[in-house]
Design goal:
Elements: E1 9-10, E2 14-18, H1 24-32, H2 35-38, H3 49-62, E3 69-75, E4 81-91, E5 96-103, H4 112-128, E6 132-138, H5 142-150, E7 154-164, E8 171-180, H6 181-185
Parallel strand pairs: 5-6
Antiparallel strand pairs: 1-2, 2-3, 3-4, 4-5, 6-8, 7-8
The structure holds coenzyme A.
Length: 187
């Protein structure tokens, strides 16, 4: 495979495009400062918009790199910024990467992340040439597990108590999932 980077992608309801620093206000308002969104994630709510701005400046700089796959998710109707999806830890020799995503609470439960992830998988397998995409989620994060399941990622194992939540003093099991190129193309 040859890296192709954060190409603009569209679906029926969504535009997936590179991040820019100017997105900070909307991202902060819609989810980056919401503890319900970050509950199972590896970061905590930003607290102040300056944190969001600094992060998005970095993401904008990274967006030109061919080995970066990181999209802002925008609702086509109304042009609202609603979430984030990326393929991380990419390796061109191994032809592998792993997904990460999150979205503002107001937009949950409408099939939007499934729609975004399916298109990202299509791009990764059909256009870039990845052989395998993996994903992990807290076992109790049912919504995230469903998104991966609906997109065809099979359960490959469970890491018992492998993650300590950042804002609650308890450990949770992590489910590892994956999908192969041939499986995606035969769906
Ligand atoms: C996980 C997340 C991205 C899902 O996005 P979404 O757009 O709501 O997902 P979809 O609507 O495409 O699919 C969610 C599915 O989970 C189901 N679901 C969600 N919460 C559920 C619950 N508590 N119990 C049972 N099913 C649940 C929905 O019904 C839907 O399934 P269905 O289509 O079969 O009805 C979103 O909730 C989110 O951003 N969460 C916070 C960040 C996060 O946890 N990211 C993932 C880290 S691994």
């Amino acid at each position: 495979m040859e890296h192709k980077g954060t190409k603009i992608l569209t679906t029926a309801r969504l535009l997936l495009r590179p991040w820019r620093e100017a997105d900070a206000e909307e991202a902060f308002q819609n989810w980056m400062n919401d503890a319900d969104v970050t509950r199972y994630l590896t970061w905590t709510p930003h607290g102040d918009i300056s944190v969001t701005r600094a992060l998005l400046k970095l993401w904008e700089e990274e967006s030109a790199r061919p080995d970066t796959y990181h999209w802002a998710i925008v609702l086509r109707e109304g042009n609202e910024l609603i979430g984030d999806i990326s393929i991380m830890h990419t390796d061109a020799y191994q032809e592998t990467g792993s997904v990460g995503y999150c979205m503002g609470k107001a937009f949950w439960g409408r099939g939007l992340m499934t729609e975004a992830f399916r298109e990202v998988l299509r791009y990764c397998f059909e256009e870039v040439g990845f052989a395998r995409i993996s994903g992990s989620h807290a076992a109790e994060n049912i919504g995230s597990g469903r998104v991966m399941e609906k997109c065809g990622l099979q359960i490959e194992g469970v890491r018992r108590q492998d993650f300590r939540l950042l804002l609650e003093d308890r450990r949770v099991d992590i489910v590892d999932r994956g999908i192969l190129k041939a499986e995606f193309l035969s769906q």
